[in-house]
Amino acid sequence: MSLELIEDIHKAVYHHLEAMVRKLDDRLELKLYAVTCQEESSSRASARIKRILTGSRDEETRVILEKLAGPDEVLTKLGLSDLPWEDSVEQLNRSIAEKSRNRKPAADAAAEYPAEDSTEDSALEDFIGKTQPVAAPASIQSSTKSILYPNKLNLTLQGKPVDLVYILSIDYAGPQVYDMFYEMPQFSFLRMVLDYYFADYYKEDADGRLGEELESKYKENEAGFLQRMARVFLGKIQQYVTEAGEADPEYLLGGYQEPNQQYYVNTLMEKIEGIATRTYEGESPFGCMLLMSSELLSTRTGLVNYAIQFERDQGIALEDGHRIRKLLEMTNNERDLFLIADEQTIYGIGEVDWSLLGTDSVFKLEFKGLSRYDLMLITLQEEAATDKRVEADEDQKLFKMTTNLRIVSTKLLGISFKNPEIGRDRFDPDLFKRIASAVFADDTTIQEKNLDKLCKLIKEATRQQSGTMVVIAKPDTAEAEVRRLKKQSTPIIKTQLNSAFIKHLTAIDGALYCDTDASCHAIGVILDGLAQEHIGDASRGARFNSAHRYLEKLKLEPTPCVIVIISEDGMVNLIPEPITERTARKVVKEYVDYIKETEKEKIAEGKVKSFEERLAQAGRTVEIDDENYFLLGDTWFKKENYKKSAEYYEKVLDHSEKPYIYYRRLLVRSYLNYCYEAVGKEQVQIAQKFLDITEYIIANGSKEINYNDYNRRAIALHVNGDISEDSKMKDDYYKKALEDYNQSMRLKASQKNILFANRARLYASMTRYEEAIDDFISAMFEKNLDSYNEELMVVASFSPELLIYALTRYAERKGEGWGETELGKQLVEKGKQWESKHPEVAAALQQLVTGNSISPDSEQ
To answer: What is the pLDDT of residue 803?
Structure first.
C-alpha cells in the first residue's frame, strides 16, 4: 500500500474541510486526525494532518502529516483517553456525544514531524576554523469546548479496500453552534455539512467505494458544495415544516444515516431567494417571516393573533416574491409582528402567543438586506417558577406560582448572496464577558450586573444598520480620553443610556465611549491611533482599522480597553481579539519576514522584543505548534544569529518527550557556531550543551544514527577538550573524540574528506602531528581539494622534522608531478626558507627534487 497515496488523500481531505469550516465561520479552527484501517493489517497508521508555515513567500504554508503512535495517541490528544478504540465510527460518535456536555479541550502537544534528514550532505559539519588557537496580560480564551466529529471514507487503493477514519476537532465555535451540534443535530448546519461531505462529496464506484483518485461527484469546489448544502438544508427545513415536526430519520439512532433525496426536490431556498433579491421602491428587503406547519396553524387555536389575515383561498404563495417583498414592509421584528406562513403560503400578518407553542418549534426568516437573510429556530425553554406563595381561600389553601417561559431564538444559518455561514455577524455576550473580564481583571467595577448592562447596550448598538463602535475603558481612562478628544467628539454628562435610544445615538459618525460601570461619557467620538506594521487589515473598512490603531496607542501606557466594532455589513468584531493558532501563525510569519528582509546589522532589538512579547502572549492562550519555533530557529540560523537560533530550538526540545532527532541535529549546528562566539563561562555552558545534545542523538536515534552524528559528537568532545583547564579531562575528551571519528570512518560516508580533516585537527590538538599531516593529505585526495593546504602548512611548520615528513608523505601519495601542485610548491618554498639553517631539510629537498624518492605507497 502506497503511503504517499494515503498521505495525498489525507492532505486533500484536510484542504477541503479547512476551507469549508473557514467559509462557514472564519473564527473556527480545524484539527484533523486520521487512522488508516486495512483488513489485512492489524496495525492502524495514525497521524495528525496540519498546516504549518514554510518561511517562503512563494508558498507561505503547507500541509504536513505528523505521525502518531496509534489510535490511542489520537484519542489522548483529543482528551478521550478513557474511550477504547474501536473501528466503528458509529460507536465512537455515540461515545463522543455522551461526553460532549462536560468535555474540556485537550492540550494538543505537537508530535514529531519526521522531516527528511538533509544532514547527510548539506548539514555535515566541517570543522574548518573552529579550533581554538593552539507581566503578562491575562489570557483570553475564545471557547471552552471543542466540537469533536468522527467519520470515514471507504476507498479502494491498489485493488484493496481501505477505511480512512477521520476525527475532526473544531475549536472556537460559539455556544449556540456547539449546543446545536450535539443537542439538536438535525438542525445543525455544521453537522449536515460534515455528514454530507463524507457521504456525498466524492464520486463512488459501482461497489459504493471511492477510488485512488478522489473526484468530486458534482465537479464542485468547496464554495459550490456549501451552496448546495444550503439549498439542501432549507429543503430539510421545508420537509420538517411539512411533516409537522416528525423526527428526522437521519438521526433516529443518534448518528447520521443516509442523505434524504427529498431535500433536493424541495424548493424553499428558491422561494426565499425570490423575496431576498427584490427591492421595493429602491429599498433593500428588511423584515421577518415565521414558518410553521399548517397543522400547527390550524390546531393550535389562538397561537397567532392576526393583525390582518387573508381569506383562506386567497393566501399568497411563497413563489410570489414580488408581492411578499411588499408585505415585508409591514413587519416589525422588534415588535414581534411577522408574516405568518407554512412551507407554501403566506396567511397574513400577526403576532404569536408564545405561551401556546408548547414543545413545538417554529422557524423565523430575518431578511437583512439584498440577498441576505438568517434562518432562526424558535423554541420555548421553561425556567424556574417565581412568585411562589400560599393563599387561603375560605376553608382551603392554594399554592400559586408564576411559570416563566424563555423564548429561545437560535440562529441556524445565515445566507449572503447564496453563501452560507454560521455564528458570524452576531454579538456573542459570553465571549464579550470573557474578554472584558480578562482585560479588566483588576478593575472592581467589572461586575456581572455591569457586564449585563454593557451586553444590552452593545446588542442595541448592533441594530444600527450603518455600523458603529462602542469603546469600553476604566472610568478614569474614559474621562481623560473624552477630555483629550473633546474637539473630535460630543462629550455628555456621564450617564447610563436608555437602551431605546441607543440605535438613534449611534446614527452619527464615531463611537460611543463608555466605562466599565456601563456609563456613557461621549457620543460620536472620532478615535486617533498609532499605526503599526502588524496592525490592521486592508480588506476591512476605516472603522475596523481605526479601532485597532487606537487600541495599539493605549497599549503604550498600558491602558486596558475593549472595543466593539459593528460594521455596515453586519459583522461584529471584539478587540482585543481572541488568540487562536492562526493568530500565533500570523505573528510567527511577520517575525520570520522581518528577520529575512532586514540586514543583519539593522535588526532592531526593540522590534525583536516586540515580536517575542506577542508570541509569548499567544503562547499563554494557545499551544503554539512546534513547527513555528523550528521555523524561527532556522531563520535565525540563516541570519547567522546562532544564539537566537539555539533559543528557539531549545524552546521545544528541552521540554518534549519526543526524540526530534532531525531538529536536534539542527540545534547541534547552532551550538557549534554559537560556542565560538561565546566567551568565558557562557562558552563552557554552551560547549557542554553541545556535547549533551550530541550524546542524546546517539543514545536515542536508534536506526537513524549515521556517521555524521558520530562526527558531531567528536567535534563536541574536541571543543570541550580545547576549553578544559584540567589536563586529565582534556585527555579524556580527546580520546573519546578520536573513538567517535574512527567510528564515523567505519560507517558509509559521502564526505569522508571532512572526517579526515576533522580528525586531523584533533590529532593536532593531541600533538600527534604526523598523524594530523597524514589525515590532512588524505582529506585532499578524497576530493582533490586545496582547501586544507593552509592548515597542513601550519602543522608542518612546527619543526623541520614535520616539514620533511609532510614533504615525503605528500610526494609518496601524489607521485610524479607533486612539485607542480599548489601544496607541493608551498612545501618546497618553506623548505628553501629553512635549508640554510636546517641541512636535513636541504637534503630531503635534494632527494625529492632529483627524483630519488621512493615509489608511491598504497593508501595507508
So the answer is: 94
Q: Are 469 and 565 in contact (CB under 8 A)?
A: yes
Kindly indicate the confidence band of residue 786, based on its pLDDT and cuts at 50, 70 and 90: confident
Task: Summarize the confidence of residues 769-787 as an average pLDDT.
Answer: 91
Alpha-carbon distance of 248 to 258, in angstroms, equals 11
Cα gap 79→146, rounded to integer Å: 10
Full DSSP string of 418-468: TEEESSTTS--HHHHHHHHHHHTTT-TT--HHHHHHHHHHHHHHTT-TT-E
Nearest to 130, CA basis, from 668, 809, 697, 747: 668
Tell me the chain's radius of gyration from C-alpha atoms: 37
Using alpha carbons, list the distances in angstroms from residue 93 to 99, 167, 182, 206. Answer: 10, 10, 10, 28
> How many degrees, rounded to 5, is the angle at CA 378 between CA 373 and CA 384?
145
Does the bond joining 839 to the residue before it have cis omega, within 30 degrees of 0?
no
pLDDT tens readout for residues 581-633: 888 888 999 899 999 999 999 999 988 998 998 898 888 878 888 999 999 99
Using DSSP, state whether 629 is helix, strand or coil. Answer: helix
> Residue holding cell 549533551?
692
In whole angstroms, give the CA distance from residue 142 to residue 28.
Answer: 10
Residue 232's SS3 state is helix
Grid cell digits, residue 8: 495525498
Strands (E), 41-174: 45-53, 61-68, 147-157, 160-171
- Cα angle 666, 670, 671; round to 5: 115
Distance CA(333)–CA(463), nearest Å, equals 11
Distance CA 112, CA 104 (A): 24
In whole angstroms, give the CA distance from residue 769 to residue 204. Answer: 73
Which residue reads 601544496 in cell numbers? Answer: 823
Rounded Cα distance, 722 and 730, in Å:
7
The cell for 540 is: 476591512
CA–chain centroid gap for 279, Å, is 42
Residues in the chain: 860
Which three cell numbers, joined as nine digits, stand for 390? 400560599
Inform me whether the pLDDT recorded for 566 exceeds 90: no
- The 10s digit of each residue's pLDDT in 787-836 is 899 999 999 999 999 999 999 999 999 888 898 899 999 999 999 999 88
Q: Which residues pair with 391 in a beta bridge?
A: 398
- Give the bridge partners for 664, in sequence order: none
With contact defined as beta carbons under 8 Å apart, do 205 and 211 qualify? yes
Higher pLDDT, residue 388 or 237: 237
Please give the pLDDT value at position 315: 87
- Determine which of 194-203, 411-420, 847-856 has the lowest per-residue pLDDT on average: 847-856
Distance of CA 31 to the CA centre of its chain: 8
Q: Which helix (H) or strand (E) holds 644?
A: helix 642-653
For 225, counting Cβ atoms within 10 Å of its Cβ (0-12 exposed, 13-18 middle, 19+ buried), the class is: buried
Ramachandran angles phi, psi of 691, nearest 5°: -70, -45
Structure pTM? 0.80
Q: Is the pLDDT of residue 643 over 50?
A: yes
Q: Report CA 151 to chain centroid distance, whole Å.
A: 22
Residue among 260, 422, 293, 264 at smallest CA distance from 363: 293
- Helical spans, DSSP H, in 598-726: 605-619, 626-638, 642-653, 661-675, 680-700, 707-723
> Measuring CA to CA, which residue among 414, 458, 437 is closest to residue 276?
414
